Every structure is written in C-alpha cells, then in structure tokens.
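Quick note —
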Amino acid sequence: MTREADRGVELEIDVAVLKTEIKKTYASVTEERHKDFIFPTGRGWAEDLDYPPELANVPERAVESFAGVANPFSLGRLEAGERVLDLGSGAGTDSLVAAQMVGETGRVTGIDMTEPMLAKARAAADQMGATNVEFVAGEVERLPFADGTFDVVISNGVIDLIPDKDAVFSEIERVLVPGGRIQIADVTIRNPVSAEGRRNIDLWTG
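Predicted structure written out below.
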C-alpha cells in the first residue's frame, strides 16, 4: 500500500505495480492491434464518438491504437495559436487532431508513460508532417513543464487510471495560464468503490 502523506491520501493499491500493468495493457493496444480488448479501440470507435473532421487526416498507425472513452473536442474546438497539453496522449490521435486545429502558430505537447505508444505517436506525426506537435515521456502527476505553459489541457480516458487525482488536477492548474481551460473525456462512477475493488488491478487497468 502506498501512502501520499503530504496530501493525507491513502491509496489502497501498489501504485508501482499499477503503473507497470497499465504500461503492459496499453503497450498491448499498440502492438497487438487485432486483439480483442474489453474496451473499444480504433478509427471506427473514434468515428462513433463523432470526432471532428480532422480525424480523417490522422494516419492509421495512430488511430488503430485509439482507446479513448469519449470525445474531448465535443466541449469545443481549439483555437488557432493555442498551446495545448494532451495528458496521456497514447498513440497520438487526440494530439494530431489538436495540432490541425491550432495550426502553424499553435503548439501541441503530448505526454505519456508508455514507450511503444510514444514511438507510434512520433512516427504518425512524422508521417502526417505535423511540425507543431511533440511527444514526451513522463507521468501526469509530475508534469515536466513550467508554470503557465499551456492555454488548454485535454485528456481522454487517462485520469481515471491514476489513484492520486488531487496531484493530477494540481499539476493541471499549475501548468495552465490564468484563465486556461480543460477539455477532459473520462470515466466517472456514481457509487463508492469497495476497498476490495480499489485493490483490484484489473479494474484499474480495464
């Protein structure tokens, strides 16, 4: 069990083991694209979520590993020139959609902790010729960016995987400019999860 003493939050799960299992799961999404997962993936799923028309320009090597839970762009289109951070950018689908919206004067940074996903995202950006996007390795609870770096933070199906959500939202607030905004698509629950459920790695990763 890991204790975040500075926030007084007790996490009833081994966070190191959880992160290892999350990396395994999403590396599998990248490397075993014909495997049946318990969550939907791929271009057809993104289209079902009514993704914006920019999706059509995103290379298949990225979209085939799309594993989002909803459409963060349904909360509004991004503006030309905006600086955007994509938390848990995966194979890069959302980042590459965002890069088209913000245009040459904007900038998109995707951060992810899964190396196979990062490699796929970078290759897709190169294939698309997107020079206004970069993908960096890191964890969203400890963002490697200065205060007030971004105008918008987007994320899709990632924050629910992280036990210490206070840390995530604290970091989001820190890296956003005053008046910046968030566009998050994620999973929520209506009833408390049992202690046994909180300790179940499969429930966290699936």
